[in-house]
Amino acid sequence: MKKIINTPNAPAPIGPYNQAVLIKDTLYISGQIPIDPKTGELVSGDIQNETRQSMENLKAILTEAEMTFEHVVKTSIFINDMHQFAQINEVYATYFDADTAPARETVEVANLPKFVNVEISMIAVK
């Protein structure tokens, strides 16, 4: 049976979906974009700030599900400019231990919700 995970510490969904779904010990987290959950405003300025906010939103959802980044087994990163990969990766790397980092793909896309520059989703297992 699935359990819906939602927290006010991450942005509310902007469509017909939930922040995350927990099935047994596996948590599927919807893609997070750089929205500040306190203000509802997009974080912009540079790709590192946007990546950091997306990761903090993911962290809030993990926390709500009583998990941490150590539980993450897979991430998907969607970006609109592969030239920003190194800057995104620099921020992303601060959230994981290199020896136990999850599997991942990074894909360049034409557009993302609200025309942001980065969106990140995760799968975590207890």
Automatic annotation (TrEMBL):
Superkingdom is Bacteria
Write the signal peptide boundaries: none
Give the Pfam families listed for this entry: Ribonuc_L-PSP (PF01042)
Q: Which InterPro entries match?
A: RidA, RutC-like_sf, YjgF/YER057c/UK114
SUPFAM superfamilies noted in UniProt: YjgF-like
State the family it belongs to.
Answer: Belongs to the RutC family.
Q: What is this protein called in UniProt?
A: RidA family protein
Q: Which organism is it from?
A: Flagellimonas spongiicola
